[in-house]
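Standup notes, protein team

Yesterday: finished cleaning the Haloferax gibbonsii set.
Today: 7-carboxy-7-deazaguanine synthase structure.
Blockers: none.

Input for 7-carboxy-7-deazaguanine synthase:
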Amino acid sequence: MPVSDTVARDDTDAEGDRLPINELFASLQGEGKLAGVPSTFVRTSGCNLRCWFCDSFHTSWEPTHAWMSLDEIVAEVESRSPEHVVVTGGEPLVHDETDALLSALADDYHLTVETNGTLETDAPVDLASISPKLASSTPTPDNAPADVDPGVWTERHENARVDLDALASLVEHAADFQLKFVVTGRDDIDEIESLVADVRGVAAREVRDSDVLLMPEGQTREQLARTRTEVADLAAAFGYRYTPRLHVDLWNDAPET
């Protein structure tokens, strides 16, 4: 297991802006262009979408968190050794205070923001890790997590999961970016091809095939074993990059990884 410790505390009375923090820990980045890089993860709670396969259930379907001031978050980040910080969720950009946190960390850390691509930011971002949600992510009564009724989220998620203006803004704004698709199988590739073409059509920045990453869906080693080979074959066939989920391969579905 990596060296990591979740911040768990009662609501703080500290003055200033605060964020709902689900986890704050140090580990290895498990996905994307920076896979394997030691990083401090700041995981906010709350999301504007509801993927049926969400791997951070307690930031979306049943959000849990402790409120922390920006000063407290920065102090916790500074107490850890990694030079890379990953602000993730949930969807961190649903919170206005996330921009202030990014600005506070920008001078001293490489900043990755993991986002579903439906919201924009003007804050400093070194790597925008954008994960547009495909039709296969939409929750239904048949695929929703156990004991969860998707209710209004089926329609709400489907209507909100792609915002081309926000995708273009994120691609153009960050120092670097990646379009990281969670792939459930071969049926996803036509939509990926179409969406990549749409982003290329609206973004004032080149989107190379090497900026497009295909990642197998799966929250456990057993689930990944069923999807990784097919997804790797798709990446090779269509000229995109394959990204593993190192944290799942190494630590399965353990928290703080």
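Follow-up from PR in the comments: The CA atoms of residues 80 and 147 lie 37 Å apart.
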